[in-house]
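Predicting holo structure, flavin-adenine dinucleotide bound.
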Amino acid sequence: MRQKIPQQPASERRKNFSEVALGFSQEDAEKEAARCLQCKNSPCVKGCPVEIDIPAFIKLIKDSKRKEALEKIKEKNNLPAVCGRVCPQEDQCEVVCVLNKKGIPINIGALERYAADYELSHKTQDTRHRSKTRDVKPETCDIKVAVVGSGPAGLTCAADLAKMGYQVTLFESLHLPGGVLIYGIPEFRLPKQIVHDEVEYIKSLGVDLKTDALIGNTYSLKDLFEEGFKAIFVGVGAGLPQFLGIPGENLDRVYSANEFLTRANLMKAYKFPEYTTPLSLGKKVAVIGGGNVAMDCARVALRLGKDVTLVYRRTENEMPARKEEVQNAKDEGIPFKILTQPVKILGDEKGFVKGLECIQMELGQPDESGRRRPVPIKNSNFVLDVDTVIVAIGQNPNPLLRKVTPGLRTNEDGTIAVDENLMTTLPGVFAGGDITSGAATVISAMGAGKKAVRSIDRYVKGNP
Ligand code: FAD
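Done. Tokens:
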């Protein structure tokens, strides 16, 4: 039997910000690890964008070698406690697990989390790579590389370059590192202490972190080259909110998901007045969207004591959010208003939201994404009784660098154009993560960070 990760009961967790999933006990973890068939061709490894040796670390857990299991994971993944919590394993390593044929794949994510949490709670931090970079003076040790953006792409790139001996400076525009991990994903899915601890590990490898440094403003890419950096990795993410373009979006109490989550997570508005950032909400909140971001917004608003409705224009089947998160939101009692498209946000005389006019939809033929297209049903308009609207329909690439950097080519959708080595149109400037792919996943951003390291290494050694 596949071991399930225990959770806080839905009736309790909907009132607090503590972590929902509680993690495996040693007994559960070893039982789950013992189910692994240790396949020779290891399809799970091929399913992992950073190619962790999954069977090897699982065997170490089975043998009660937790520290060694983590070291095995860290050969490929610098953020195991994060990935164990938020990676969509069901679409990656677990979907190709041989046991998935019987519908009982190994719970790889929970085992990864187990190994990482053991280290974090026992502080048995692996210093192998650190000593490598300090003791051996490789040919790279005098070469400076700049990494811009400290999300999963930038953190991975910085950590792997430091392990190879490069002098890495990581520039982050916010006051805290972590990107979406720190400002977007809520505390109850990814406790911020976990992110801080994993960033500390990366700093311990020798990475010099400079926060409050907005590249493109504080320094340009040209300034960085003039400062002696031989190559630059740009991992600035997709943090520009998308709106619906319907009347009423500038009313008070209409939020983008980004603003809402940044206030709640990064600025800790949920602990007001202990933390001073306000979050003005009414009593009834509509969250528009069906992805992970929409689920996070809805579940944060619920925990703030609001009456929340999730509004989505297709059906639950087409929702892009992780199944687990959809189920969690439903278990917590959030109603889904499906096949519903907002057409206008209604305001009162003071400029505050007083309702959301919607039209009923039905599913038509599949569109280019393969999902059935939602089609409006004529004369089916109705008004949802809400006083706050959060728009969570997607994010676009951050536009600053492309606007201020001559010669940096971007694609039509605003992503930075890169070649097969992740080099941009500017020599020595590489890019990866959401800024090149558009909004995607933590692990794909990490995969891009790793790929860029190989290209940067070749580039600075004159072998592009
Ligand atoms: P980001 O994480 O966006 O990091 C970019 C960093 O660059 C930020 O810290 C930003 O402040 C900084 N920056 C921007 N411009 C500059 C500049 N000019 N100078 C210096 N620094 C700059 N993925 C999953 O796999 N699982 C999930 O459960 C999941 N849930 C999500 C929930 C939410 C609410 C959101 C928004 C996304 C979620 N994702 C999830 C997607 C995932 O978080 C992203 O794909 C991933 O973080 C992208 O990493 P990145 O490093 O490319 O960019």
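The chain has 18 helices and 16 strands.
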